Hints:
Blueprint (H helix, E strand, L loop, with lengths): L5 E5 L5 E2 L14 E15 L14 E8 L2 E10 L7 E7 L2 E6 L1
Parallel strand pairs: 5-7
Antiparallel strand pairs: 1-2, 1-3, 3-4, 3-6, 4-5, 6-7
The structure holds zinc ion (ZN).
The site of zinc ion has 8 residues, from loops.
Amino acid sequence: xxxxxxxxxxxxxxxxxxxxxLWCPGCSGTAWEEVPTEAGHVVALTSIRRAIAPDFDARPIxxxxxxxANGSVxxxxxxxxxxxxxxxxxxxxQGSAVVAMKR
Length: 103
Ligand SMILES: [Zn+2]
């Protein structure tokens, strides 16, 4: 199994994005193709200051504009190490989360 985040592309209308959907917001279709995403740049950064899970660690959350064969897609990821707005990052799946680390 690939550790690269996979975006969804609608087989009917071509809508493209993340996170995964049950049906297409463009045409309500349910047939999907998976499109691997690659590196991207950090667009925004935030922190969650209250615990949201028992094993919560307060790493910053970043919004990444990542590239793929279908164009760019937005990813919400957990920062690994020091990441700043404008940094080029690699994104990898880690369990159900996406982790962004500076290149
Ligand atoms: Zn569609």
